[in-house]
Amino acid sequence: MSEHKLTLLTVSSLEKIFPDEPFHPQTAYTGASCLLNERFSFQTAYYWEGPLTFHARVVVSGSLAGAVTVRQVGLAPSELPIFPDGDNFLLRNTPGLYPDPLYPGTEDITLLPGQWRSLWITVPAECSLPAGSYELTVSILGEDGTVLGSCGFHLERLNARLPEQTLIHTEWFHTDCIADWYKIPVFSEEYWELTFQYMEAAARYGVNMILTPLFTPPLDTEPGGERTTVQLIDVYRDENGYTFSFEKLERWLALCERCHIRYLEFSHLFTQWGAGHAPKIMAMEGSPLQKDGCSTSRTGFPASEKGCLKQIFGWDTDAASDAYREFLEAFLPCLMDFIRSHQLQERCYFHVSDEPNKEHIPAYLYAKSLLESQIDGLPIMDALSDYEFYEQGLVGIPVCSNNHIEPFLAHQVPGLWTYYCCGQYREVANRFFCMPSQRNRILGIQLYKFQMQGFLQWGFNFWNTMLSRRSINPYCVTDAGCAFPSGDAFLVYPGEDGPVASLRAEVLMEGLQDMRALQLLEQLTDRESVLRMLEDGLETPVSFSKYPHEAAWLLSLREKCNREINRVINGK
C-alpha cells in the first residue's frame, strides 16, 4: 500500500492556517448559506504526507464549480507581529510566516510534506446562479492525474439581496506607492490603468470613498521629507496670480464613476499632526500654454509660457502665512466651481489635519476657519479621539479611534465615524496578521449596532517604511520597517499586472456584508428584534472592546440572520 496521504477538509474563512503547527479547525464547516449578491468565501485546508510534489493541481466539480474562483493562500513574513504589550486575543506573537496573500492560479501547485496549507474559494458577488442548493467538490490531483484527496461543500443561495452599503468606507489610497513600485511615470497611461485596477479592487472590498490627491497628500511623511508627486491639480502662477487646470481631477472622477466609488475624500490641505505647514504643492511659472523645453515625464504637467515646474509650498511654508492663505483663497473657489458643475456637493469631504492635540488647537482652528470660509458648508472630517476637543467645536465630523469611542457614543454624537490603525491593538477590532480573523470580521457587527456613518483606515496600499523614508517590497517587509504591526499598512500586494488581494481584505468585506445583512433584517422587521437576536445568550452586550471571541459565534449569528431573512421574505 502507498504511504502517501493527503488530508483535505473544508473550513471557514475565519481560519488562519500556519505551515509550522498542527491545524485544528475552530469549528466544523461543511456548508453555509448566502444571499444572491453576496461575496462568499471558504477554505480548503490540506496536509500532505508524501514526497515533495511540484506539479499537483486543483480541480473543482459540482453545480457550483463554474461560479467559483480558487486561490492559493500564500505566506508573508512578519518581524513585528504585535507590540510588546499586546493582549492575549492573538494567534501568536512571534515573528515568522503568516498566511495572508491570495495568489491566483491552481493549475500547478507544490505539495510540501508535513505542512498545512490552504486554498481560498470564493463565489463572487456578481454570481448569476439563482436561489437554490449547490454542491462543490474540491480535489487535488497528483502529477500523474491521480486523485490524492477530495472534500465537499454545500452552499444554499437564498432568494434575497443585500441592500446597498450605506456606510461610508475609505482605505487611504496611495497612488505614489503604485508609481514607485511599478516604476512608471505619474500620469502616464500605465499609471492611469493601474490606478483603475487598484481602485476597482478597493471597491470590491467595500470602499466607496477614495482619498483624492488634489495635492500630494502630506501623510506619513517625515518633516522635511517628501513623497512622489501625485498632484491632480495643475497650478500656474504669473504676475496676475494663479490659474488652475482640473483635467486630471476630471479623469480621476471618471475612474471613480467606473468603479462605483461615490465619495471623494480630498487630501489634507495642511500637514499631519498639527496643521503647521502646507502640503507639497508644485506649480508652473507662467500661463498654461504648451511650449517645448520642459520635461513632463514625472509630473504630467504641460510646459508653461515662461518656465518649468517648481515647488511653491511645503515644509518651509507656515500654514498661517499670507502666501498660503492667498493661494487657498484663489484655489478653493475654483474647486467649488468644479464641484458644483459636476453636482458633487453631496459627495465631497475635506480634511484639515489628523488628531490635533492641545498644543495644535490654535493652528488647527485657524486652518479650519480658513477652509470653512471657502467651501460653502461642505463637510470637514478629521481623526479626533479626545471628546473634549469635539465639545469645543474643533471638528465637525470626528473620526474617532475605536479604543476611544465610548464618550462619543455616550453623548450620541451624530454622524460619527471610527477608525483603527497601529495604535488600536488591545481589546478592539483590528486586522493584524497575528490576530484571529474573527477580530477583523467583528467590526461589521459593531458598525451596525452603533450605527456608524463611516469607517476609515489609513493603509490600503502603503508600501513605504514609517514616515515614507523609503519604499519597501511588501512581500518581504510587512511592518513598514519594524514600525507598525504587520497588517496595518496595506490590504493588497502589488502583483505583476495589478493588485493581489489578502485574506484580511476578504474577511473585512465579510464583516461589511454582515452589517448589510443585519440592516436588511431590520428593514424587514425592526431594530429591537435584530439587536435582541444579535445579543441573545451573551453575558455582556457587544461593544467596541467587548464581544464574543469565538469564530463559531460569528458564523452562527450570520446563519441565524440569513434564516430570519429567508423566513420573512420567502416564508421558509
Structural class: alpha/beta
Total beta-strand segments:
24
Say what oligomer this is. single chain
CATH architectural grouping of the largest domain:
Alpha-Beta Barrel
Low-confidence segments, ≥5 residues, pLDDT <50?
A: 290-300
Individual helix count: 11
The CATH class of the largest domain, by name, is: Alpha Beta
Please list the strands of the largest sheet in the order they lie side by side: 1-3-8-5-6
Kindly summarize this structure in a few lines.
The protein is of the alpha/beta class and 572 residues long. Helix content is 25%, strand content 24%. The chain has 11 helices and 24 strands.
Describe the protein's architecture and organization:
This protein is of the alpha/beta class. The protein folds into 2 domains: 5-158, Immunoglobulin-like (Sandwich), CATH 2.60.40.10; 168-521, TIM Barrel (Alpha-Beta Barrel), CATH 3.20.20. 25% of the residues lie in helices and 24% in strands. The chain is built from 11 helices and 24 strands. The chain has helices at 175-182, 189-204, 247-258, 322-341, 361-372, 387-391, 406-410, 437-449, 503-524, 527-534, 551-570; strands spanning 5-12, 31-35, 40-49, 53-61, 69-78, 96-104, 109-111, 116-123, 132-141, 147-158, 168-171, 209-212, 234-238, 241-245, 263-266, 281-285, 309-313, 348-349, 381-383, 397-401, 417-419, 454-457, 493-494, 499-500. The strands form 6 sheets. The protein has a 5-stranded antiparallel sheet, with helices on one face. Helix 8 (437-449) runs parallel beside helix 9 (503-524), helix 9 (503-524) crosses helix 10 and helix 9 runs parallel beside helix 11. The two termini are 49 Å apart.
